[in-house]
Amino acid sequence: MKALVQDEATPLTARVDKEQLEKMASVVLGGALLTLGLQRRSLGGTVMALASSGLLYRGLRGLRQLASNPRDRREEGAQTKTPSVEHAITIGKPADELYRLWREPGNLAQVMSHFAELSTTSAEYTHWRVSGPLGQDLEWDTRIVEDRPGELLRWESVEGALLPNQGLVRFRPAPGDWGTEVTLHLDFQPPGGALGEAVLTRLLAVPDLLVNRALRRFKSLAETGEIPTTGRNPSAREGAHLH
Amino acid sequence: MRALCWNGINDLRVENVPDPEIVNPHDAILKVTMSTTCGSDLHFIDGYIPTMREGDVIGHEFMGEVVEVGHEVKKVKKGDRVVVPSFIVCGNCWYCQHDLYSLCDNTNPKPEVQQATFGQPTAGIYGYTHAFGGYAGGHAQYVRVPHADNDCFLVPDGLKDEQVLFLSDAAPTGYMGAEFCNIHPGDTIAVWGAGGVGLMAMQSAFLLGAERVIAIDRFPERLELAREKAGAETIDYTQVDSVVEVLREMTGGRGPDACIDAVGMEAHGMGLEYAYDRAKQALHLHTDRGEALRQAILACRKGGTLSILGVYGVMDKFPLGSIMNKGLTVRTAQQHGQKYVPRLLEHVRKGELDPSYLVTHRFPLEDAPRGYEMFKKKEDGCVRSVFIP
């Protein structure tokens, strides 16, 4: 199980193991119903898989995107469908403070370090680098295009990026003593053709996971001053299978 | 260092693994002085809870001496003798602020699996599957404890390891289960399972003012402990036609005011339902054998409380209609240990609680696989095995 269960020091990109993922998901569901169903690849099997739990299936849909081939999601030769992901999290700190934390370059780099290396070139510009599995890096620069302190921040990749993308983070006071609701939205427009496909597979197969993790990492940093980790853990041998 | 590692279903081995290190600023490293088996470990040892990896260091109930601290650790110092609750908690998030420690938002580095299967992720645990964080456990010479200031509790001088070891998990779990029962004077509390957690729940029920406690189990030595140590009345479920009927008779036809399930997903039973559960579990068609929980629901008096401490995944044939029509209150959680350890230390210090009788078998860490075997099969009257590195 790579993409889901690994130390967050390793990039999440392109580390998807479909069989492991489905196995993991299904066993957690309470037995091998889903696995059985998916393995049988028959109508009965599919029904069995779905019947194992409608609710769980919904919950897993996001995860199962991991395992789907980008070709299933677009017509041959057409412009690749835009993956756009949005998640929200509640953080027990005031919006102003969270906005300031987000703007501190070192913090954002830590928050995103599970999939990208960030370096801040100026108050407005950030350089992103995502390493792929074959030693091929994907790099782009983003520029802040909208800035409402304590409320919202929007950025866009600059002209000529191989992977045009935009992002938005919004801070809204939460009810009661909950603090602030933080929403992170990422939008990618990969080019069509083989390159787009490679990019999708390598980076965007797991946009849901990337955004979710980034928000959770930001929350932990804001609330505790550290990000939970099992780095340098004595547990689990290198390359051990997930059961 | 030496550590007990999971290598597959029912395959535990003591191996050499890397020493733990300070990784985050609030970490501490403990030299483990004693650790113990827990019934909930059996679920992943037996393969009913997934997301284990070969080489995982297991164990979540332990104590030790602090040998190293990170630069942000303020209270805990080198040389402190501490007991550590099994759930890793940050102390800062909304859940920790509201004493709901096992629901901590900031200690599970791998939250996706639980988010997909439970709806939201919980706190991380030591040595308890990757869904629960994948942290190395305490059946080892050393263990890393994140957020040490919140998670290490200083042991008062003059108390033996055996007296405080179970404050890591069994005692706070049992105490929480009894607290869930909202006990009033005159109340009768029934407890399914007379293992470590069940026995602690029985004693806690009396500490919290119960008039009677009834223990349900099948092992004579456990039932004897329930009588001798906890002062409970007992039912051997293998000797009666219907536990539910016996409980009704014992309580003037009402049923117990509250029922505590301290068994979980690998319950044993007698009848047709047990055979059905057993077969489905063997085929991996569902993960849980729910005999104890079903009995508890049916036995509970109208308007009473069902307190669930046993660990469950998914279960079918769950008599929700009984809960609904009888207007039961269901209270459950993984243990919020950090809430209870201070008051339990006080009970132990005053001599009002001494869990050391749970230690029926002691082993050097090297013999931990044998210790788990005896614990699982309850050989030689084993209630808990403890390991000394």
TrEMBL record, chain B:
The keyword Metal-binding applies. Its cofactor is Zn(2+). Residues 25-156 form the Alcohol dehydrogenase-like N-terminal domain. Coiled coil: none annotated. SUPFAM superfamilies: GroES-like, NAD(P)-binding Rossmann-fold domains. InterPro entries: ADH-like_C, ADH-like_N, ADH_Zn_CS, GroES-like_sf, NAD(P)-bd_dom_sf. The keyword Ribonucleoprotein does not apply. GO terms for molecular function: oxidoreductase activity; zinc ion binding. Gene3D superfamilies: Medium-chain alcohol dehydrogenases, catalytic domain, NAD(P)-binding Rossmann-like Domain. It holds the Pfam family ADH_zinc_N. Keywords: Metal-binding, Oxidoreductase, Zinc. Residues 196-267 form the Alcohol dehydrogenase-like C-terminal domain. Belongs to the zinc-containing alcohol dehydrogenase family. This is Glutathione-dependent formaldehyde dehydrogenase. It comes from Cystobacter ferrugineus. The lineage of its organism: Bacteria, Pseudomonadati, Myxococcota, Myxococcia, Myxococcales.
